[in-house]
Here is the input.
Amino acid sequence: MRTLLCLLGAATFAAEPAFKLVLDENFDGPALDEKIWNIETGKRRDSLNSPKAVDLKDGVMKITTWTDTDGTTYCGFVTTRRKFHLTQGKTEARCRFSVQPGTQIAFWAQSPTYGKSGKAAGAAEDGVEIDILETTGLKKGGYQSVLHWGPYGGIYKNLKEKRDSSVQHPEPVGAEWHVYGVEWDDTGYRFTFDGKVAWTDVKCPGSKAPEFLLFTSESNIKSWNGERPKEGYGLKDASKNTFEVDWVKAWERVPEAK
Here is the structure.
């Protein structure tokens, strides 16, 4: 049995739990397994989510953010929404990326009931946005891990209930394959890089809600992720704006025997 010393204080995680493997995806087939994955479509930010941005080849899922001759920029938004959810467990993915300004990519988890209570204090039941790997072209191969809880806005905007916690990992690692992961329980979150703890957070309530997984690219003309080149990113075969995933696994936490 071992405990993890919190990097942000004196709190500790519970004793090492048992886990059950519930997702083991190696992208070996000719197409995504429709029982697990969605390729979501439609306008998002200043781009269009489309299957045109997503490919499977040689056991790798590749999301390419690219610009057509008519000026449309295509992004990939691959999720397990309504098909696979993870509740208090851990997940890892082996990824590499090359991201240009104006684009952000992410491996993250989200709850269908995020912000439902309208209160940051309700995040354990509502769910949490868990950004395991998030980066933009401005980070030049580095990345960040972020937790968001409390409502994003809307009718609750004036309540100022939105909360965030984050850490920057500035070392340029994107060009090589690495394993990014997170484990969470009632006490908080432990983020890993190649199997080693990279950041621990206990400020954010431990999500008890089912969380679905996402691998996404998003693009703006100009925003926090930088400014899109005026000519865009080039046609798909020429674009260097890519996010590749070799595999993803998830483990459900096994409750302790009483």
Summary: The first helix runs from residue 123 to 126.
